[in-house]
Amino acid sequence: MSVEVNGRAIAQKIFDEVRNKVLALKKDSYNVKLSIIAIGNDSEMELYIRNKRKYAGYCGIEIEVFYFPADVSEGDLIQKIYELNSSDCSGFIVQLPLPSHIRKDVLDIISPIKDVDCLTSENLGKVFKDYRSARFLPCASQAMIDIFDEYKIDVEGKKAVVVGASDLVGKPCAGVLLNMGATVTICHKATKDLSEFIKDADIVISAVGIPGLIKGEWIKRGAVVIDIGTRVVDGKVFGDVEYDEAKKRASIITPVPGGVGIITVAELMRNTLKAFFYSNSAIGSPSTTEPPSWM
Asked: What are the φ and ψ backbone dihedral angles of 82, each rounded to 5 degrees?
């Protein structure tokens, strides 16, 4: 019988840690703020934003959202990014995915010390070089590490398969696993015979957003399964993995919801707090390349 990851418990520890630090800063009249650029009118995106609002409120982090229509010009988006780079926000994100007419290179305009989603080439490059010395980690990658730490999962020497190759989740997760000593395979939309890769994996990380993509019978007995993919269908949230069947075979598995998702929100709050210190290095950090020791 597999162990079900309690993502809410892991996240709560992080929320409480961030909340305590933010409240201490507020006593000294400091304000931690997260800004979000949201493009288009998508119910799934709005669900993610509501969750961020909810937990930012708990942590004492101010949150502001700037909405743009789906046909926003690249120039208007760039202008807003420049504004936020020089604003009083501690960090900000551009809610993905970007519309097809917006080049993803635009994200490199984000100030690296405010890039709390870790999407700039500079910050992502640091993750691939060695995640341990990176300024930020993408929230899903850090959530994956949190799960490894909480459940004492030894990654070194294991065969890991990452399904999905996005800049936000798949690629950085693969980079972190490689740095941890795993033998890593990345599968994507052009991969043929996906089941053959999954069946041989000691660790499966899925981040696609296609419900039921990973069949439970594909899971190797004793494997660790971390399902990061989510999709809202008729108001319900589903993951990539056929959970009930996979649970019979995996040693450790994340549910959807209640697994990775809430930990990623907690890590976004922690990254926002880190960004505050990067911008205010005299308060708790000796430089803009080193976070406070407690983080």
From this structure: -60, -40
Mean pLDDT of the chain: 93
Give the pLDDT mean for 141-145.
98
Distance CA(179)–CA(77), nearest Å, equals: 34
> Is 45 exposed, middle or buried (CB count within 10 Å of its CB: 0-12, 13-18, 19+)?
middle
Rounded to whole angstroms, the Cα distance separating 285 from 267 reads 19
Residue 103, Cβ neighbours under 10 Å: how many? 10
pLDDT higher than threshold 90 for residue 129: yes
Neighbours of 137 (CB within 10 A): 26
pTM above 0.90, yes or no: yes
Which domains does the chain show, CATH number per domain? 30-112 (3.40.50.10860), 137-261 (3.40.50.720)
Angle (nearest 5°) at CA 275 between 163 and 148? 35
What was the pLDDT predicted at 286?
Answer: 36
| Amino acid sitting at position 290 | E
Residue 285 predicted with pLDDT over 60? no
The set of residues, in sequence order, having a beta carbon less than 8 Å from that of 54 and lying 6+ positions away, is: none
Q: What is the pLDDT at residue 235?
A: 79
Q: What is the mean pLDDT of residues 187-204?
A: 96
Catalytic residues, by residue number, are: 52, 95, 117
- Tell me the C-alpha distance between 35 and 90, whole Å: 8
Copy the structure tokens of residue 65.
């959202």
